[in-house]
Amino acid sequence: MAEKTFTREELAKFNGQNGQPAYVAISGTVYDVSNKAAWKGGKHHGNEAGQDLTDVLYNESPHGDKVLKDLPVVGKLV
Fold first, then answer.
1. Phi/psi of residue 18, each to 5°?
2. Helices (DSSP H) in the chain: which residue ranges?
3. Number of H helices and number of E strands within the chain?
4. pLDDT tens across 17-67, in order?
5. Which CATH code for domain 5-77?
6. Is 0.85 topped by the overall pTM?
7. Are β-strands 5-6 and 29-32 bridged in parallel, bridged antiparallel, or unpaired?
8. How far apart are CA 46 and CA 28, in angstroms?
9. Given Cys at both, which of 16, 50, 53, 64 links 22, Cβ 3.0 to 4.6 Å?
10. Residue 57 gets which letter from DSSP?
């Protein structure tokens, strides 16, 4: 099966609101954060799901990319 691809516009629909799953893109990979309590409602420390958060993760997050290892990958941002 081909890997799912998302445009920025498609990714924006997955914001964790109104029953939608919460997805975020990091370095071109789209991750599902829906089951993370910290992302309840599609928001986490002022960041919103449905976006490319690469810059936020690498320049503002105290966690760095270690938080990605347990997240399901759902596709690629194109």
1. 50, 40
2. 8-12, 54-59
3. 2, 6
4. 999 999 999 999 999 999 999 999 999 999 999 999 999 999 999 888 998
5. 3.10.120.10
6. yes
7. unpaired
8. 21
9. 16
10. H
Amino acid at 60: E
* Cα distance between residue 47 and residue 17, in whole Å: 13
**CB–CB of 72/32 below 8 Å?**
yes
For the record, the structure tokens of 62 come out as 């105290």
Amino acid at 4: K
Integer Cα distance of 62 and 78 in angstroms? 27
Expressed in percent and rounded to 5, the helix, strand and coil fractions of the chain are: 30, 30, 45
Six token digits for residue 14: 């997955």
